[in-house]
């Protein structure tokens, strides 16, 4: 009996530091796209601060644990999502997700080889709302001008699978306006420039990007689908103003998640690390300067709820994609 | 702040000659040289690897380090193109056309000297063009819509097909094969998968780098293995000395018109996002062939030094051009620029119309560092050329396994993906078969790069033009490019017929 007690005690001693000491080795954050994009930039910017949190928490200034961003581009993010789902749920491999992008198969009812609901959702590191953008030189001065245009609107876009395309389709179908989509532009910057050049009438993009691209004052922002219109977009209306407050649910989320089945302790630890990094004054200053909105939730439960709310909102419009 | 503020420009150059800056510049240049020489690893990979290190650096130092890498990779990529028929980076593929035959004749030193000097000078001319374009960057970017991209893609394919002369039909077949390969994968316009056969790897299509390594490096090694001996089978090793290299360096100066034209083409094409260095290099090559004296035209493809100078000057000058859309709109002009863009953003700079006023000092540091790194790279390449060139005398039994190992490692290290290695091997055999049956391979890289651009621009042009292509005739810039296409064909045909006449007419 005494032997058994000793064994149990030994087991407790052995397991206790293992839990308290997370992380004990280097951590990988999978980026589902190549180097150079918004997801890549944000992850690389946050990594040193996540490292800093874990170092301070360990109390050892010489703690050399690294947070390593790893690009895994392929199949529009699907390759990385499948990879992450197959990793051990020990907190050492997590991924930055694009929502609703990674949720598109869920929204359409397809099977991409991963279950979007099953991941261990940790915290949001970025999120944004959508705006409607036209060229300042063009004929459209308010949202009604677009709605009242005879014929369909010409809308430059990335491609059928892009998140902004989903936002465009939901918006224009809600407003009862047809759209002719010009696909094939490489990035939001590219298709916004296409509007300026006159390739099309209008497009939509995240508000942070709109602020960045409009520094030279080339564009008019006619609508901002958020509860409060950003002061950077004077004259823009929101969904409430036009009788469609539901358009405020058109969100864009960047969430970090781990493989399905992570323990609550490790998830909470991650949640704290991400909140620390996101709220760090350096990151907030960078965010304000570059127009990359970064903001965390309080709990992992809140993160999961925001995720499902967004996906289920998009799901209602699956027929327009 | 005026874009061309002399005080800011002077400050940037003074800054560049501080000890710290020089250290980062030389470090970046050396890293770029190594990555450029290894097939598959180009400037893009080098920049991506350096991002984490640059984050803790002061923005100016980070930009200098990155500019060092960017200014160099195309220069060193020419070395393997010339010595082993293996372009270090995709744009160097055009250099193989005359560079490799020169190596086979034991004149590798001459070719490397000419390539290095043309690269260095081309880079500087590109920067000068960039400086001239700074005040009008916005207009340049807005001038080119999908209609112009469609026509430019056609122009690229036409010029490369014409450059193969009598093998025009075989070249067209190779081009068509390239277009088919380029169409594999998810199609971003229709949202459909094409020729993927349910294989996830093919969803993104064939990646350019593993395909290129296979098509050029592996096929060449198979060929060399089959024929035994060394690359420079017919040359004399004693002939490769520093004198030969120096002689090569003087060639671009002697042929300054070729150099200037190549650099102008490079800068112009480089400024167009998505078109890039490969097209610039091939276009410069083709225009050099078509504008050469009829008596000289036949020597292209057999070791004409002009065939090295034209693509190399264009290839390096395009970096200056590619900075135009990157800085002015945040639209990267090339893959390298996409990574560089994220470095700017990580350091809190926002590319776009206002960068010229908000971060003008950094822009000038970037321009100064890019120009300086090109010169440093050329000097290093020139001084090492006579030693490196001796590689062409190494026996195939030693050379082939080493190059193949580097090729496989380069292919795998791109994304740590074993299927990339399989792709490299498959295209190695395909390339070898093309060589074996006398098909000129140069249309292939261009078709792969331009295929998607042409198809996407075609769809976009139709959509913009309400289902017709009539808008091609509405825009002056489109009409100019169409005239260029017609001129290229006419010029070539004129040369072709006059040559046939002179051949038929007894002397």
Blueprint (SSEs and pairs):
The complex is a heterodimer of chains A (321) and B (507).
Chain A: H1 2-20, E1 27-31, H2 38-58, E2 67-71, H3 78-85, E3 93-99, H4 104-108, E4 120-135, H5 143-147, E5 153-156, H6 163-174, E6 179-182, H7 188-197, E7 203-206, H8 207-213, E8 219-224, E9 251-258, H9 264-279, H10 281-290, H11 300-315
Parallel strand pairs in A: 1-2, 1-3, 5-6
Antiparallel strand pairs in A: 3-9, 4-7, 4-8, 4-9
Helix pairs in contact in A: 2-9
Chain B: H1 6-16, H2 19-37, H3 43-54, H4 59-84, H5 93-104, H6 108-133, H7 137-143, H8 146-162, H9 168-182, E1 185-186, E2 193-194, H10 208-227, H11 242-254, H12 256-270, H13 276-291, H14 294-297, H15 306-329, H16 335-346, H17 355-358, H18 360-388, H19 396-415, H20 418-436, H21 443-464, H22 476-504
Antiparallel strand pairs in B: 1-2
Helix pairs in contact in B: 1-18, 2-4, 2-18, 3-4, 3-16, 4-5, 4-6, 4-15, 4-16, 4-18, 5-6, 5-15, 6-11, 6-12, 6-15, 6-18, 7-15, 8-13, 8-21, 8-22, 9-21, 10-19, 10-20, 11-18, 12-13, 12-15, 13-15, 19-20
